[in-house]
Amino acid sequence: MVAGTGDATDKYRRWATYASVTVALILIAAKLASYMATGAVAILSSLMDSSVDLLASIVTLLGVAQALRAPDTTHRFGHGKAEPLAALAQAAFVAGSGVFLGYEGVGRLAEPRPVENAELGIATMVFAIVMTGLLLLVQRWVIRRTKSMAIAADSMHYSGDLLMNSAVIAALGLTAWTGWPYWDPIFALGIAAFLVWGASRIVREALGVLMDRELPDGDRARVKEVVRAHSQTRGIHDLRTRSTGIGQHIEFHLELDPHLTLAEAHDITDEIERELRAAFPNAEFAIHQEPAGLEDERLDHRIRR
């Protein structure tokens, strides 16, 4: 039986993507004007990151829209893997901007330039922090309710933006206070390193879903706990789990009394599935019933070997 995402959950996902694109556009306009007025490479770094955020947010919007499509004749498992694919595209954008920013920062170390209108730059960054903070509140509210990987990856970008904007403020303030021109490119290089590190995290998480990595040990333990709590359960084996991108897929072999009728075994399985669905509302389940005590070739045995 397939558990689809609810209309409200789908709506939350779409709202989060629209909010992300809107905030990115506003911040790009503000930071571009500020960079043209100050010439600060630290502001350029933040502008680059916001530009990447816009591309990533658009990819997220498209990825979420694709992931929410219903199963069809050519994709009977649904389209949920579009979310980790969108996350991989985000990682490519983030890593590319980090490399470019690092190149620009090294150039400014070799040929430092004065920063003008530092006050305007600081005011722009404060505005960016406020806008980013509001967006993060929306995204985290949605993530708690949807577990969306693409939106979580997008949220990580904007979490990094809070640190980045704070670093830009520090760079501008130190440059204006000390007159030393190297604060600006030094902070830019630090931000570049942070972007590349963040991209590597996104790649690891997205590949885990695309390669059907098992759900966390706590989730697997919860499945076994729910199944074994039923009075008719005689055992469970060959439990396999994975993320579908927008939910989970859980399958296992359920051991039952061999003297049960087919109808009785079916009813017991339905009861267990209802209990599991309460714990994993966005999961799909595939449960194979077999008589307890049957000795057969099992996945668990192959894994142990």
UniProtKB/TrEMBL annotation:
Gene Ontology molecular function terms on file: cadmium ion transmembrane transporter activity; ferrous iron transmembrane transporter activity; zinc efflux antiporter activity
Taxonomy, superkingdom: Bacteria
Keywords: Cell membrane, Membrane, Transmembrane, Transmembrane helix, Transport
One GO CC annotation: plasma membrane
GO BP terms in the entry: intracellular zinc ion homeostasis
Domain Cation efflux protein transmembrane: 19-211
Membrane topology: Multi-pass membrane protein
Compartment annotation: Membrane
Residue stretches making up the Cation efflux protein cytoplasmic domain: 216-291
InterPro entries, per the entry: Cation_efflux, Cation_efflux_CTD, Cation_efflux_CTD_sf, Cation_efflux_TM, Cation_efflux_TMD_sf, CDF_Transporter
Family: Belongs to the cation diffusion facilitator (CDF) transporter (TC 2.A.4) family.
Protein name: Divalent metal cation transporter FieF
Organism from which the protein derives: Niveispirillum cyanobacteriorum
Gene for this chain: fieF
